[in-house]
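Issue: copy button drops trailing tokens. Both records pasted manually instead:
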Amino acid sequence: MTSGSKKNIEALNVNPSVSDERMQAAEVIVQADEAEPLLIDRELSLLEFNRRVLEEALDADNPILERVRFLSIVGSNLDEFFMVRVAGIFRQIESGDVPLAGETRPSVLLEQVRSSATLLLNQAQDCFRNDVLPALAETGIRFLQWSDLSRDQMAKISSYFHANIFPVLTPLGVDPGHPFPHISNLSANLAVLMRENDSEKFARVKVPDSLPQLLRVDTESYIWLHEVIRANLRELFPGMKFVEAAPFRVTRDADLEIQEWEAMDMLETTQQSVRQRRFADVVRLEVGRDMSQHLLRNLMSNLEVVETDVYHMDGWVPLSELKQIAALDRPELKFRPFIPGVPAALANVQEDIFSQIRKQDILLHHPFHSFTPVIDFLAQAARDPSVLTIKMTLYRVGPNSPIVQSLLEAMENGKQVAVFVELKARFDEGSNIKWAMALEREGVHVVYGLPGLKVHSKVALVVRKEGDAIRRYVHLATGNYNLTTASLYTDLGLLTCDEKIGADCTDLFNFLTGYSTKTDYRQLMISPINFKSRLEWLIEREIEHQKAGRQGRIIIKVNSLVDRGIIDLLYKASQAGVKIDLIVRGVCCLRPGLPIVSENIRVVSILGRFLEHSRIFYFRNGGAEQVFLGSADLMPRNLDRRVEVVFPIKDHLATQVIHHVLKSYLEDNSRARLMKSDGSYSRLKTGALDAGFDCQQFFLQNPLP
């Protein structure tokens, strides 16, 4: 496929309408879905997504350190899955074990999740032990046990232990005078069983998370920190006879429930909630399969954990810590580096970015386009004497943020700066609190949150005086203002000075920083104000086009599809004959390909080098095609409990999104997985003589002009 292809997107497998009789039969099925549920449970779909990530770790065509990275992502994702999703099921059970409409009873779902998660964890450990370790060894990178070390290596590591590890350790005995210690979330620990004379002693040693979990033995050999500590326990408990020492780890409920309506200070309340994470209920206990029953029962009793929440693993390895190996400076073992480009509209470096935006709207496709234009946009705004005001939202900021530095510089230069920092961005609360306080100290007007809502939109507004007029420049995006993720995630952004969009952004910030009940936005669709109703209207319009013989067509690319109302409406559109393609990276609760109900719906998930993060909404509209981009996924939280912004893309930029971006995603037969109606996925592998089409590789070689 070439970037100049003009093949109409609606010409790809458009189906005619189904009969009225089939429509009526389908409506009965949608209303009575008890016998055959029409939804995939969200938690099970999320585990399926992580199984697809594991496939990337198993794929020998990927460079070995990238396979290690995928394996570490599986570990991190599963940690979050237990901290949030499994913990949520526990809370549902405690609240009465009542299923939501169309969903599985929580207690039944928990058993299904335990079974699926156990299988996935074991498959991931097997991948590391049987596939990744041998492949790493071929490159010279080895993982050693203490018994594998030579005498010189033991001496070197022992010296390091006494100088750097031993002073940090705090062995904690458990007896009537020493209660069982608190085990912090996701911390690695050693459970130690000893004997002194005829009495049994139990102790816990925390593996310090302030130290690297993998220690370098020599140039390319590593040993786990907990292995080194276990081999040197006699230094901690001199004179004791050791019976057993085994690693374990606990996962706690970490889904913050901030009592926002009662909070007098959102900043202080979020800080307190982050601290409380350390003491939440245990939802998972991970142990090695060789841990004795006696020691395990001791742990279970003290942690108040039942057998079904214990996850036994062969060769206990904290998968998330493999990111240390993935980060090794071995470029030949990673994806080939690339230099991102810039759109042709920004090619004239002699012009300031504002004059370039005045000429035309500019579409950015990251990471294939550099994130530098976004940084330059705010940096120039901070220094430009004509700029009066900068307003923006910050969701996941990241360390050493040049965006924040520009905001601080703008404040120093006497501009009005207002920033909405979303403190409740899960697991980024600490970083966001730090940046919010730094901005506030410099006099920036900082808003910390809205009661009952999380602000997930990505908007930057620059107000500039040009002669006797005021012009507004806007950056809108599907991704965060984070330099690190901009090189790892696929996202789309728009630089524009469209008057209506600028006016809408002004109204949006008035809503965020003050009080507003405005609902009649000119160009933007905003959750929870009008996005869901507008999206429903757009889908209904395609149904009407299809009934009138104008080939209804919908393409939606999101990270997650969960909302029952939108799913039912997509089923309705399918029953009317509207051809629907859904590109859903992660959770998809809709069942494609069900007879009558969803025969016209195709769902694919694309995983590859970059995390697919862009959200795109396409409607054929009887030939007058419309394209929207935005920050919103199709989940109840995004539609009802978050502030999201979805914006239109017009003219030649819309054509680029349709024929360059969406068409490439739909033609991918290398990284795409096709979803089956039972919720499982199969890869769209091509024949041996066909290299296949990889959309991400295509974007690398053919970025948007």
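Record 2 (pasted manually too):
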Amino acid sequence: MENPGTTPSLLSYPRYRPELKPAPFLPMSRAEMDALGWDACDIIIVTGDAYIDHPSFGMALVGRALEAQGFRVGIISQPDWHSADAFRALGKPRLFYGITAGNMDSMINRYTADRKPRSDDAYTPGAEPDKRPDRAVVVYAQRAREAYPDANIVIGSIEASLRRIAHYDHWSEKVRRSVLPDSKADLLVFGSGERAVIALAHRLAAGEPIEQIRDLRGTAFMVKPGWRPEGFVEVDSIAIDRPGPVEPHPDPYAMEPQQTAPAADGAQPVRIIPAAERVAARKADRAKQVIRLPAYEVVKDDRVMYAHASRTFHLESNPGNARAMVQAHGVGPGCRDVWLNPPPIPLTTEEMDWVFGQPYARRPHPAYGEARIPAWDMIRFSINIMRGCFGGCTFCSITEHEGRIIQSRSEASILREIEEIRDKTPGFTGTISDLGGPTANMYRMACKDPKIESSCRRLSCVFPGICENLGTDHGPLVRLYRKARAIPGVKKVLIGSGLRYDLAVRSPEYVKELVTHHVGGLLKIAPEHTEDGPLGKMMKPGIGTYDLFKEMFERFSKEAGKKQHLIPYFIAAHPGTSDEDMVNLALWLKSNNFKLDQVQTFLPTPMAMATTMYHSGKNPLRKVSADSEAVDTPKSGRQRRLHKALLRYHDPEGWPLIREALRAMGRSDLIGTAPRHLVPRDQPVVLDRSGGNPGGGARRTGKAASPVGARRAPPPRRGGKPTR
């Protein structure tokens, strides 16, 4: 297993083909390969997105990094998956197929939170829908295997990362097994994959069989039961964080062996771990431990054990102290283990600069002609300055994919990219649309002590409060902003990524700099809720912190002579949210004159901790047992519609549902036309297109035009970000 202190730098490898020169675009056809003088590709990346040669898109980021290492990389973009023909377009790769669903999980890309098919796809030319299959990683991997049965198949991207162990699947409403046995892939790369993919390519090129490459951090694979590296000791996850019902002490006078009955909620009895085994588990060398998670066949039927597995998984996410994990899939002779190595070591600033400094064309492949690709329009003038997020929001997938440790680029690298946008990107008029990433303001933030960071097991550095060991200096970001807007040809630098306002309020200088120079009238911010119950389940700060930031924002806007507004994001139907919570949020929105045009309903994404709450009814933020804290979750279609309607309290279409709910809650005092009321008693009268109904009179309707004064829909979240 790779040791964190001995992981080779991305810049330390000798180039596999020293003579290889950068291609204008990575080839998508045989004709392009011929023009480059290639007889075959070393690696072929299959992606569910249109190929855009820009570092915000995974296929370009990994492809260019491999090219810089001297490998010939081809791209198969959005292939027809109904047969294997499209997967033979570039021939057989010498080393491996790299399979990715794209920048988004394919199921989230194709379906709404209510499981309705989306009408468009931002990552497809012309925004056409249905250009990728459901569960694209599995389908693409199977077709690649069909095209060339002896080719190496490596799966990756956020879709593979979030499905690397047994996980709850919102669309089928069941726990599905790891993506590895379904895809039949040889290897899964999770998280930011440059380290693992580059090391893998060099080792395969040196002749090492893929089935023997078992020590790369950030990879997972299938093995026979009982397999483990030499010197490794298996530890049952129950010895670390024992779930299940509390066992009564045995009766010493009982004549018959006592049988433990299943818990009331159906959870099965849990094996008692002897004290000696628990002590041994704590004392053993962590680097040589592998944690045995409950098997797929257990977690698919036992919700307590599912929550326990989720909690164990998330506690082993710090690259500095994470242990390998293993989970059985199948029973009897067909049983196999999914083995997960520890997460990848974060990239250094030098490595980040190298990855983002490759010769990207910074535009879509010419094969798409003039077709519009919405995701490209969204990010073409934006720049990723960092990776990772230590916020730990339970509904968000960034932590599971990119990790909690912030990986920042150097100031010089970022400023060079601004100049490249100015000089190379068509349509640039002087405005940089974003300097950010998963968040706007975690640039160069880190734990004050590397030793503490490497041993920490907190799920968030900022909840329930900001850790005293976290450095929150915004000075480097302020200096970057000032230098960025001073570049000749740059008229404006905006901040489009979501702002972490609980960090921002610690630096009035930063807030003033941001508000004075980098807000284009509207600033995105995500309080997500106002009530402590749901906020605690989200691991988000209280609304008082938002009020403090709002006061600073308005004060500095006034000093700058600008009329600017905050655009808040809120989530409806999040686990732990009651109807009363949503009513209180709606009243807060009305009192602050917020009228939201677009709202977000909670979507259970694979492996997120909030998804665990949604599925299991348990809180994995604390020790899990059959009688531990229960989390009530809005699941019925009616309740989810109600919570969404309350966020849009001003929309007459939702008023009948809100009135019915308020009466059931004993809150009829909120129905009326006074300012203190939430909705009126009657529906508005709206004439039909002919000026009236066929009977000559007006008709009542639940629908109406957008109310006067309604705020415009907030801009979409950044196209290059992982799924929330």
